[in-house]
Amino acid sequence: MAQTWRRGRTAAGEGPPPLDAERLERLALRYVERYATTRAKLRTYVERKLRERGWSGEAPADPAALVQRIAALGYVDDRAFAVMKSDALGRRGYGPRRVASALRAAGIAEDEWPDQAEDEKWEAALRFAQRRKLGPFAAQVPDRAGREKAVAAFLRAGHSMAHARMLVDAAPGTVPQRDNG
């Protein structure tokens, strides 16, 4: 019978060796090197690797201390990640509620979240309408069901009801100006 070789496996079919402090740190640094991440995501990754491979170190494993040490070196920056994620989602046309949901899912504390100005919220709503061909970017005025679907799409994308209504009610080809009041 032919032996299948896989990365990290021995010829006898055993799994990779259990982790010690040095191997765990190398895994964590490799993860940070490859992915933009947060402290919470890194800790989840380290804990998962410990569950999968086990621990052979002399002292008990301390994922929190490892994550803190890597963050102190500047390899993980939750605030920078939050700004990057917020900007990326805003460019794709997502609103503040959707951005907040993504940041919360990434494990970023609310005090690390960037503030989104009212102009940025409006620009994101316009980008969403353009991308989805809604409101002023639609080919024709939607019927009542189409209007309700368009408003629902805006709300799912995290935009306010006021922005959704203003854009959905706009005639095709007429981009409304944001209300400053």
Major beta sheet summary: none
From the N-terminal CA to the C-terminal CA, the straight-line distance is 76 Å
What's the structural domain tally? 2
> Rg to the nearest angstrom?
24 Å
Give the tally of β-strands: 0
Helical coverage, percent range:
40-55%
Q: How many distinct helices? A: 8
- How much is the average pLDDT? 91
What are the segments in which pLDDT stays under 50 over at least 5 consecutive residues?
A: none
| Main structural class | mainly alpha
Shape: elongated
The string of secondary-structure elements, in order, is: HHHHHHHH
Describe the model.
The protein has eight helices and no strands. The mean pLDDT is 91. With 181 residues, it is mainly α. The chain has two domains: 21-76, no CATH class; 79-168, no CATH class. The radius of gyration is 24 Å and the shape is elongated. It has helices at residues 21-34, 39-53, 63-72, 78-91, 96-105, 118-132, 144-156, 161-168.
Which labels suit this protein?
55% helix, 181 residues, 8 helices, mainly alpha, 2 domains
Quick take:
With 181 residues, the chain is an all-alpha fold. 55% of the residues lie in helices and 0% in strands. The model has no long low-confidence stretch (mean pLDDT 91).
Write the layout of secondary structure elements.
Layout: H1 21-34, H2 39-53, H3 63-72, H4 78-91, H5 96-105, H6 118-132, H7 144-156, H8 161-168
Helix pairs in contact: 1-2, 2-3, 4-5, 6-8, 7-8
